[in-house]
Design a protein that fits this description.
85% of the residues lie in helices and 0% in strands. It is an all-alpha fold. The longest helix is centred in the middle third of the chain and has 38 residues.
């Protein structure tokens, strides 16, 4: 199996994992949101943001350092394992003794105990870092798919049962802990590798030399992506954060399904390419491919946001529908940004990755401080504005490193973007003329179906070259059993 087939198969498994686990996760989240209050959702939401930030310090860029090497080296693996365990102990201790009381003072007194209990997640994360990197570099994404689905399902069921029995926010706390325990156990069981008693100081210096800028970049990037949620929580309160998170929840799940699988499998694929030209070409092709189906999904989500939130979460969460619309409009530029960051990482430009993360953080903080005080709708609009500004800079850096003109990059995604924007505008007009007495579920299905028809028609009739490219790339990446169906579609559209 060649590299392209490995990438296609791995992306498919990650999509299956993301689709299955995200669907399960979303259904569980809907049930929990109906059982719990906005304040409960806001409390655990703030805690999860802090836990995810701590996880970045635990991983310390070590998985990327292992994956990008062409060979598996035991000394490197052993050293990485002991570094990750050391970092996990330090971060866990810092969270328990320092972060918990500070956050309790600044945000909510209940966060003290919540964060102390959740600090055990860092220890579990540190144990599995090298094992997971080994899985990813060997393209064993089927095992990751099964692991993700099982852990999400079991921990979610426990959380729903606890919430139904009145445990409140603690049902969400134990959901996180049980999920991490299961992921760690299943990962260790899949790889069945254990380090020897050897730690190399020169290897540690080499690993940290590469991973430190990357870690800082990831930390800053995560802070940037969560800046609005942090500011909403601190400046407006847990209940407001609950509404903001519900508005973004469906979008995070869609991102996990349609974007993250490529992000996770693209790095090991790029790492095995031998030249900058190959990486540049591969990145452009992937951006073009993902833009074709991601742009209409997120512009479509923006169009149906209010109806979707009301139907799924009930009228209690109506405010979150408009938040979803504004956040969805800011997701398309991330399709470009994720792949550019991966290309820079694979090429060893971790310093530029850090620069982009700092830029995103500065922009988010500046816009957030200006807008969050005006409410959650203004905060969501600020997030959308920031993603487009960051995307412009990412394109400039991609030109600098890979010698690909910005105009060429824009033309790479322009057809998909234009068709998606036209679809979004038509759907907004259509919603104004739909009778108000139509059942919400029927209204939602009609709008979504109309969006699919509009986008497909535009891409098949006006932007035929994009559809030809998409089907050709899909055919080359798809499993053998799926190729006949794609080829038949190409002939039907006269694009073969």
């Amino acid at each position: 199996m060649n590299l392209k087939q490995h990438f296609g198969k791995s992306s498919l498994w990650m999509s299956i994992a993301a689709s299955g686990s995200s669907l399960v996760s979303f259904m569980i989240f809907v049930l929990l949101s109906r059982l719990l209050s906005p304040e409960d959702i806001g409390l655990i939401g703030f805690a999860i943001i802090l836990i995810e930030l701590g996880k970045i310090l635990v991983t310390a860029g070590l998985p990327q350092a292992i994956i990008r090497e062409s060979d598996w080296d035991e000394t490197r693996a052993n050293t990485s394992f002991y570094l990750s365990v050391f970092f996990s102990l330090g971060v866990s201790l810092a969270a328990y003794t320092l972060a918990a009381p500070i956050v309790a003072e600044l945000y909510d007194p209940r966060m003290h105990t919540i964060l102390q209990v959740l600090s055990v997640i860092y220890l579990l994360e540190g144990i599995k870092i090298v094992h997971e990197a080994k899985i990813r570099r060997e393209f064993l994404f089927r095992s990751l798919a099964i692991r993700t689905l099982l852990s999400g399902l079991i921990s979610g069921i426990v959380a729903v049962v606890m919430a139904f029995n009145g445990f409140g926010v603690w049902s969400l706390v134990w959901q996180q802990i049980i999920n991490q325990i299961l992921i760690t156990v299943l990962t260790l069981n899949t790889v069945r590798w254990w380090p020897g008693l050897h730690f190399s100081i020169p290897e540690a210096k080499k690993l940290l030399g590469f991973s430190t800028p990357l870690t800082i970049a990831q930390l800053i990037n995560n802070l940037a992506s969560k800046a609005y949620e942090l500011l909403v929580g601190v400046l407006i309160g847990p209940a407001a954060l609950g509404f903001f998170r519900v508005g973004g929840r469906a979008l995070y799940i869609v991102q996990d399904i349609v974007i993250k699988p490529f992000e996770k499998t693209f790095l090991p694929a790029l790492a095995q390419m031998n030249s900058q030209e190959q990486r540049a070409t591969g990145t452009l092709r992937l951006i073009r491919l993902t833009a074709y189906f991601c742009f209409p999904i997120f512009f479509g989500a923006a169009a149906i946001g209010p109806e979707f939130i009301t139907l799924a979460f009930t009228d209690k969460w109506t405010e979150s529908g408009h938040v979803m619309t504004l956040l969805a409009l800011g997701i398309p530029p991330l399709v470009v940004g994720y792949q550019v960051n991966t290309a820079l990482t694979a090429s060893g430009h971790s310093g530029l990755v850090m620069f982009l993360a700092v830029l995103a953080l500065v922009l988010n903080l500046a816009l957030g401080v200006l807008l969050v005080s005006y409410g959650i709708f203004a905060a969501a609009a600020g997030f959308a504005l920031r993603t487009y500004l960051s995307c412009a800079v990412e394109m400039i850096l991609f030109k600098r490193i890979f010698a690909i003109d910005v105009i060429r990059q824009v033309r790479n995604v322009a057809p998909s973007f234009c068709a998606a924007v036209i679809m979004f505008g038509v759907l907004l007009l259509l919603k104004k003329y739909l009778p108000d007495d139509i059942h919400l579920a029927i209204r939602l299905l009609f709008i979504a179906g109309a969006g699919a028809v509009i986008y497909t028609t535009l891409m098949s009739c006006i932007f035929r070259g994009e559809t030809r490219f998409f089907l050709a790339e899909s055919s080359s990446l798809a499993p053998a059993k799926a190729k006949p169906a794609i080829n038949k579609l190409q002939r039907f559209l006269r694009l073969a």
